[in-house]
Amino acid sequence: GDPETLETLAYDAQLDLDATIQRISGAFRLLGLEEKTRSIDLEYGRDEKKESSSPSTALDFAFPPQLSEGLRRLYHLRRGALISPGPMRSMDDRAEVRQLFLRFPLEDCVGMMAPKLWSTGNLENARSSSSMQSMNPFPAETMALWESSIIAADQHDVQFVWSGKSCTQSNPFDLVRSKYKTFLQKKAKDRFPMPEIHMLFDGDSMSRRFTTRLAPSHADSPEQQLANFPELSSLSSASLERLRSRFRFYDAAADASFRKWFWSVSSATHAS
């Protein structure tokens, strides 16, 4: 169809997703009010099922915790190239990705909905072999873009190795980049078409192809950032301030963070 019709359909799909999340959240909160004991069940039920459980958050009382991972994937889906126009993908590219999404099996489709990230963590004062070999799962959000880290990212049809400003030197960081590239190649060895791996450095014009895929968690308050991403506490105050200041030019109305999006669509006044 013509571009205007496709964009109208994409916007309608976003509204449908928002309305679905609002209905699930509303039904879940109504169920909690009716049972009156849901908060107690949530606290002790988790202890029985998990030895190491995280404390309950406001989100746990507004949306089924069992579906929290799916909720975040739907958030990435509605703002990603499969639905949202976005600044980095042409109409033809998006049409091709959509065709693949409709043809692929479920596991591949899930991988296309949201990027997966692995990071070295903070390498600011780390030079030992063990610290350079670390590969930690990180949330797919902008507050993961540490200047003292290297990131591997996989979104099924495209992959990235991103290096922060403090990790651009060849020695010793080329070894880390090579390891991460090999890791991504092994994950994609049975995929067709084979995804391209982009080797990116912070500040490169092409790095936006990666960073625009990340949820803009820099829009949240510092307290919310730390609560949702505790690893941020490993950064120095100066590094954390530099990380937050890099996103000064940002339109929250055009691209809401996961937290702001969820509370806006799940509120009782949201029009579905």
Task: From the structure above, extract its key features.
single chain, 272 residues, alpha+beta, 11 helices, globular
General description of the model:
The longest helix has 33 residues, at 3-35. The protein has helices at residues 3-35, 38-49, 68-79, 91-103, 106-113, 129-132, 173-187, 208-211, 222-228, 237-245, 258-266; strands at residues 116-119, 136-138, 150-154, 158-163, 196-201. The two termini are 27 Å apart. With 272 residues, the protein is of the alpha+beta class. A five-stranded mixed beta sheet has the order 2-1-3-4-5, covered by helices on one side. α7 (173-187) links the parallel β4 (158-163) and β5. The chain is built from eleven helices and five strands.
Brief overview:
The chain is α+β, with helices and mostly antiparallel strands and 272 residues long.
Mean pLDDT, nearest integer?
88
How many individual β-strands?
5
Q: How would you spell out the order of helices and strands?
A: HHHHHEHEEEHEHHHH
Helix content bin: 40-55%
Q: Count of helices?
A: 11
SSE blueprint:
Blueprint: H1 3-35, H2 38-49, H3 68-79, H4 91-103, H5 106-113, E1 116-119, H6 129-132, E2 136-138, E3 150-154, E4 158-163, H7 173-187, E5 196-201, H8 208-211, H9 222-228, H10 237-245, H11 258-266
Parallel strand pairs: 4-5
Antiparallel strand pairs: 1-2, 1-3, 3-4
Helix pairs in contact: 1-3
